Structure formats: C-alpha cells, structure tokens
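Sample intake sheet
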Amino acid sequence: MRAESGEIARLAAGAASAGELDLRNVQFLTALHLAVVVDRPDIVELLVSFGASLNLQEQRHGDTVVHLVCRLGRGECLYAIVDALLRRTTAQRLIEHDLKAILHSFNYDGNNVTYAIWRLGVFCLQITH
C-alpha cells in the first residue's frame, strides 16, 4: 500500500461506522467506483474489506464495480476485490445469494458480470500473448 493508505484506512473506517461508505456523487459513483477508475487496487481492497457495496450501479452505463473493473481492464482491482472478500470474517462474508446477485447483475448494455469477467480474461490473454 502507498504511504497515504493509513490515512485512507482511518477515513474508510469512519465512513463505514457512520454508514457513509457507499455515498454517491452526481454520476452515482461511489468511492469504490472511483478507486477503480484511478486504478488503485490497494484502496479497492480496503473499501471492500470495510464492506463497500459491489452491487451499486453508476449512471452512465449502469456498471457495478465489477462491470467497471472489466470495462477498464483493471485486473489487479478484480484480484483486490476477491482478496478482500476472502479475508472477511465469516459473519461478514457474502452469502451465496449475494454472490449470485453480483455475478448475475446486468448493466445497461445487457452484459452481466460473468460475461464482463470473461471478456476481461480474454483481454488479459491478448495482452500477454
């Protein structure tokens, strides 16, 4: 993590305890969406570990955070999301229903997250070969 991550962790903890972790701007982007946009997997991991929602959609394309990760080709951010979800305590882990909701959520283009992740995988393969 970068040097300012300690301060960001303190702010995220405060936002989480105040129920403000998922506040949105005028484009319906949350802090988690913005961390993906600026390619900060360290912040993505931190926000998810504090309980930031993965289901909220932004205004332009209707993308959830995972849709946005895939649209922008942010593979490291996807790994950060998965790592943070796996490290949550049992009480905080997503139940199967929530995980299905994330994987089957559609954006305004009609693409579900499963398809978006598949496309990201194809994109990553094309870059490495």
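Comment: The domain at 5-128 is CATH 1.25.40.20 (Serine Threonine Protein Phosphatase 5, Tetratricopeptide repeat). The mean pLDDT is 76.
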